[in-house]
Amino acid sequence: MRVMMPGILAVVFLTIPLHPAANALAQDSETVEHGAGFYYTVKKGDTLWDLSQRFADSPWLWPDLWQRNGQIANPHRIFPGERIRIYHKDWIERMRAEQEPVEPEPVEIAEAPEPEPEKIPTETITYEAIDSVGFIRKYKTGSFGKIFKVADDKWLISQGDLVYIAPEAGTLEVGSLYTLFRTLEPMKDKQTKKTIGYQHVLLGIVKITSIEKEFALGEIYRSWEAIKVGDQLMNYIPADSQISLTDNVKGLKGRIIAADEGEKLIGDHMLVFLDKGRDDGVERGQRYLIYEERTGKIYEEKTGNAEPNSKVLNLPPVDIGTLLVLRVEDETATALVTISDRNIAPGAFFRAP
Questions:
Q1: Least confident interval from 35-44, 103-112, 308-317
Q2: Do residues 274 and 286 lie in contact, with contact meaning Cβ atoms separated by under 8 Å?
Q3: Phi and psi of 38, rounded to 5°?
Q4: The pTM is what?
Q5: CATH code assigned to 134-235
Q6: Which CATH architecture has domain 20-98?
Q7: Domain ranges of the chain
Q8: How many Å apart are CA 257 and CA 346, to the nearest integer?
Q9: CATH architecture type of domain 244-351
């Protein structure tokens, strides 16, 4: 799993009351103090989303937790036994800033200006890992180049490594950033057997450092997945991590094609692909319900030796989760499962509330 799902806190030994999360730390045998906070040992079922909620009272601060733990290659995959550093300093300073009174500065009294029309604030959500969100596209994206060698002959390439690139379509430029990607086998709809498109897995970002006669040199600027020889380059177009929530398409219904990592069971904070896209009015920031369709049978009373007849009824759908659209293509979209009340399988339905 990638989902992507996602210093936060501080315990400083002062004579002020501790935050509830800090009291929990004192009783948690899975934590070890260090100079700026403590180390937490990951347990089964933990996610960065949940740890951010536990120690920072906000699950949306998980990208900050990820950034402060550079050993975590994929924020959607943490494993039992890993040690994660939780910082407390920033939290205490933020609490002080909120609690300490600020002396008001003297102001001149002037005539009140004409009131401006009231602006309705736009609700936003921050998703720091937005550049790593892959997609499904009907055709393969054109490649600007391909990695054919790494400086230290490593099998897996990561941040800071120097790579050799064979230029393909387009022109590589010194100092420019390019997204590294890999395409998987064509994905087909399991029900209709129709080819949906190629999944593009985004691996990281490479910066071109020099151009030689027949190849280019680049340094891995960021890596989200293990990069290998043969991986390709596309234009890097930075995406805004601030996602403005917007109205969904009324009456829209569709299905979840697959999970980002090909998982058979889908849960909270996992990335999934939808079979609806820009052509259907889907936009980034829309939210939809994941649901199950249910049916029931009504049996008629048996008469004589005749077999009882039955009638199948379509029952009201049962909502089992929610999702947020992160990226949109013409015929597909990539979304984050924000809530799942139970395990969700590829092929599950989604709809507008």
A1: 103-112
A2: no
A3: -165, 160
A4: 0.64
A5: 2.40.10
A6: Roll (3.10)
A7: 20-98, 134-235, 244-351
A8: 6
A9: Beta Barrel (2.40)
